[in-house]
Amino acid sequence: PVKYIERTRAYYSAQGFSAYQWTVNESAPWTPLNKPLERCMVALLSTGGVFHKEQPPFKNERDDLTYREISKNVDVRDLRIVHYAYDHTDAKKDINCIFPIERFQELEAEGYIGELAPVAFTLMGGIFRRTYVRTEMAPRILQRLKDMKADVLFLVPA
């Protein structure tokens, strides 16, 4: 029923690869907060292909294996979107629907969260090279989060 599954299988097969193995998650690790949210540093990550106008745009195709860091104080008028897999109409009207940076700025100002991490992360969804994500990209982002001493990561899939 999901049309791109057969296209993906055909794409990998035509290149001589074995059948694409879709990720199946049997469980998800649970890590409870060890302090109140109003004392936590919260980081934001979006897979919406958002970037600052002074950063290089994402490639408009699957498997762009890069990510961008965007200052928590960004002016949303300076943000752009490149992503092949979804309609940008609503996001261009209000970037917060895929990158809720202003909502998190408000939560920080209201004291609902302790603070927003100094930078937010954005990348492209539609990455089929999951080994690379698991062994390269995710560990680099995780190390940045640890360096910032972030307590919580809020993921916004696009």
Describe this structure in words.
The protein is 29% helix and 18% strand. With 158 residues, it is α/β, with parallel strands linked by helices. The longest helix has 19 residues, at 130-148. The two termini are 20 Å apart.
Jot down its keywords.
five-stranded mixed beta sheet; 4 helices; 158 residues; 29% helix; alpha/beta; two-stranded antiparallel sheet
The unreliable regions are none
Biggest sheet descriptor: 5 strands, mixed
Helix content: 25-40%
In DSSP terms (H or I, runs of 4 or more residues), the helix count works out at: 4
Describe the global form. globular
Number of strands: 7
N/C terminus separation? 20 Å
Estimate the mean pLDDT confidence. Answer: 91
The secondary-structure element order is: HEEEEHHEEHE
The portion of residues forming beta strands comes to 15-25%
Report Rg: 17 Å
Structural class: alpha/beta
Gist?
With 158 residues, this protein is α/β, with parallel strands linked by helices. It is built from four helices and seven strands.
How would you summarize the topology of this molecule?
Elements: H1 3-14, E1 41-46, E2 50-52, E3 67-71, E4 79-81, H2 89-93, H3 101-110, E5 115-116, E6 119-123, H4 130-148, E7 152-156
Parallel strand pairs: 1-5, 1-6, 1-7
Antiparallel strand pairs: 2-4, 3-6
